[in-house]
Amino acid sequence: MYERKILPNLNCGLDLIGEVLYGKWKIRLLWFINEGFQRPSELQRKIPDATRRVLNIQLKELEEHGLVRKKIYPVVPPKVEYGLTHFGKTLIPVISVLGQWGDENEEKLRDIIMKRFEK
């Protein structure tokens, strides 16, 4: 796994949030876990563009940051479920507002993003 050689800049809240939520699928993982999709296979179905490996890495990072808890049931085959911690639940209103902003500006954002692929 990639290890940083330079310490991150952690001088403000935006830097801190960036360090914790940086990753293409992390916000969606938090949202879907909050919505009740707790098994890795359920999360994979909700985010089919992500590989299982990347989802596992990002779930592990979310767990290390104290946003997600992982529960392993002692059965064969092993059963794993993810849930939000209290700390993780505090992010859901923020994610909701970001999603609402995205919905309200969908057309403009879609145009901006698609222009990158037209070059």
From TrEMBL:
What Pfam families does the database record attribute to this sequence? HxlR
- Give the record's keywords alphabetically: DNA-binding, Transcription, Transcription regulation
Report the protein name in the record: Transcriptional regulator
- Which segments cross the bilayer? none
Q: Which SUPFAM superfamilies match?
A: Winged helix' DNA-binding domain
**What InterPro entries does its record include?**
HTH_HxlR (IPR002577), WH-like_DNA-bd_sf (IPR036388), WH_DNA-bd_sf (IPR036390)
Residues covered by the HTH hxlR-type domain: 12-110
